[in-house]
Amino acid sequence: MKFRYFLFAALLCVSAGAAQAVTYDINYDIPGSFGIGSGDTVNMTSGTIDVYLGAHGDGIINMSGGSVGGLMGYDTSTINFSGGDVYDLESGSGPTTVNMTGGHILTYLQTWGGSTVTISGGEIDGSIVVGTGSTLNLFGQDLAFNPDPTAPLAGYGYGLPFKFTGHISDGTDFTGVYLYADDPASIDIINRNAASVPEPGSIQMLGALLGSGAFGLLRRRRA
């Protein structure tokens, strides 16, 4: 699965050297890929991108609808995924930030290169892969993960195999979603009352809440 990074790097070369910040509103079909560079923003609300939608530098992708072959984040880019369908979502080659509050990933979410992924909503049909140096934060209701040596990719170099049980913050059942992690200590599960959902991506806010005990948050770090 890692080889897709190299494929998409070539597809984004045309946008990496953008001279000034541009905002693109996508609500139409693109029969290929679409990439942005530093300072640029993409707001996708509908339509279809057949291959990939991706960002280099500190570019920002906001996807709330439509369908994409894959979402790609590089460098210090940010992906805010709240709706629509994505075949896969991958972040790497830098501390990319991914905030998932909704939407549907049909296969897998992969994070590499010191990226931070925060999930509080949406569906993932397949698995989550967390590489060395990256962090996964999950807001849940009764969420947990346990070792599962029978996981499909166990022993193939994607990290230690686990399987989730329980629900994430928006009530989506995560039972059966596989997790592969090089370092299980990089996985944070924050289970709390479903009546109050923290703003996704606010790690600073999360720290303040944990420090004060607000909302009765229970932080569970797996060793």
How would you describe the overall organization of this protein?
With about 220 residues, the protein is mainly β. The chain has one domain. About 10% of the residues lie in helices and about 45% in strands. It has 2 helices and 18 strands. It has helices spanning about 5-15, 205-210, and strands at about 25, 35, 40-45, 50, 55, 60-65, 65-75, 80, 85-90, 95-110, 115-125, 125-130, 135-140, 145, 160-165, 180, 185-190, 220. The protein has an 18-stranded mixed sheet that branches.
How many extended strands? 18
What does the main sheet amount to?
18 strands, mixed
- Structural class designation: mainly beta
Rg to the nearest angstrom?
17 Å
Number of domains: 1
Query: How many helical stretches?
Result: 2
Shape, per Cα inertia axes: globular
CA-CA gap between termini: 26 Å
The H-and-E topology, N to C, reads as HEEEEEEEEEEEEEEEEEHE
Helix content: 10-25%
Assembly classification: single chain
The proportion of residues in beta strands is 35-45%
Low-pLDDT segments: 1-18, 194-223
- Summed over residues and divided by their number, the pLDDT gives a mean of 83
Concise overview:
With 223 residues, the chain is mostly beta strands. 11% of the residues lie in helices and 43% in strands. It is globular and about 45 Å long.
Topology:
Blueprint: H1 3-16, E1 23-26, E2 34-36, E3 41-44, E4 48-49, E5 53-55, E6 60-63, E7 67-74, E8 78-81, E9 85-92, E10 97-111, E11 116-124, E12 127-130, E13 135-140, E14 144-147, E15 160-165, E16 178-181, E17 187-191, H2 203-212, E18 218-221
Parallel strand pairs: 1-3, 2-5, 3-6, 4-7, 5-7, 6-8, 7-9, 8-10, 9-10, 10-11, 10-12, 11-13, 12-16, 13-17
Antiparallel strand pairs: 14-15, 15-16, 17-18
